[in-house]
Amino acid sequence: MLSDGCSFMKGMLLGGVFCLVLSFLGSFNFSSESSTEDHHHHHIYAPSKDELKRLSDSRVEELKNQVRVYCIIMVQPKILVYWATVLDTWSKHCDNAVFYTSEGSKALEAVDLNEKDDWARLRKALIHAYENAGDLRWFFVAQPTTFAIIENLKYLILAKDPNEPFYLGNAVKSGELEYVEYSSGIVLSYEALKRLMTMFKDEGQCPERTHALWKMGEDKQLALCLKYAGVFAENGEDRHGKGLFNKQNVVNMIKQSMQDNPTDVVEGCCPDMAVTYGGMSPNQMHVMMFGVYRLRPYGHDFHDWLTFYPPKDSDND
C-alpha cells in the first residue's frame, strides 16, 4: 500500500513537472514576440511619386479602377455603438462594406453567422466574402474598434497584383509564427483568399475548431492556415520604415511620441499615409473623420498624382 502511494506521488510530481515544461514551451513558442531584428517577413511599400510619374495616364487610370476593396467588418450586438460608428464613418469609403455578426440584430443590417467561436466566425465571414465579392479583388478584415483610411490602403496596394498571394498589415512574430495583428486590420489579395478556401477543407492543418489546450487567437489561426498554403505575413510601411497599420489609437501614439521624441513629436509619431489605427473609441472615430476628410485649409490645392473617389452614390464625407 505504501509502495502504491509512493508511486502515485511520483506520478503526480512527474506530471506536474511535465505540465510546467509544456507551459514554458507554449509561452516561448506562441506568445513571446521577437524583436524587430529577428523577423523574416517582407516589407510592402507604396509606390513613390517618381514611380507613378513613369506610368502613362491610361495605366494610372487602369490601376485606380482595378484597386477596389471589399471590407469585412466583424461585429457583435453587445458593442452596437461601435458597429453604428463604423457604419457611419470610414466604412462608406469601401467599395463594398459588409458587416458580419455573431448573432442577429434588429437595429443594424449584417450577415448573421450564428456563431460564437471567434475563429469559426471569421472563417465563415471569409468564405461568404469570397463567394460574394464579384469583381472585387482585395479584402480588408477589421474589428469595429479599428479606424481605416481606405484611400491610403488603395495607394499602398496600387501596383500590387491581386492574383499574387498578399497577406499584409502589421506583421509581428510569435515564436516561429509570423502573423498580421487583427487589431490593426488584415489585408488579403484574391489569390491569398483563394488559397485559404482550399486550406479550409483540410481539417488536419486548418481545423475549424481548435483544441482548448492550444487555443490561439483568430489572427494566429489565420496565419497558420495561410502558412500551410504558402502565403506569408508582410509588413506595410512607408519609405521611412514607419508602420502603416497601427494597433494603437492615434491619441496614445501622440502621447508616446511626446515622451520619446519631445523635440519632434509629429515625425516620431505617425506616418503621413497611415492606413489604420486600432483601439479607437466612437468619439475618436468621428474626430478622425473630421480631420481626415473634412478639415481643409482654404485656397490650398492638393497636388496628389492620383485620386481615389468613394463608391458612386455613397453617402460619405
UniProtKB/TrEMBL annotation:
Main location, first listed in the record: membrane
- TM spans (from-to): none
Task: Tell me a GO cellular component.
Answer: membrane
Keywords, sorted A to Z: Membrane, Signal-anchor, Transmembrane, Transmembrane helix
Which processes are annotated in GO (biological process)?
protein O-linked glycosylation
- Keyword Glycoprotein among UniProt keywords: no
What topology in the membrane does the UniProt record assign? Single-pass type II membrane protein
- List the Gene3D superfamilies: 3.90.550.50
The GO terms this record gives for MF are: glycoprotein-N-acetylgalactosamine 3-beta-galactosyltransferase activity
Q: Where in the cell is it found?
A: Membrane
**InterPro entries xrefs:** C1GALT1/C1GALT1_chp1
Q: Does the UniProt entry include the keyword Secreted?
A: no
Family in the record: Belongs to the glycosyltransferase 31 family. Beta3-Gal-T subfamily.
Q: What is the protein name for this chain?
A: C1GALT1-specific chaperone 1
Look up and give the organism this protein is from. Haplochromis burtoni (Burton's mouthbrooder)
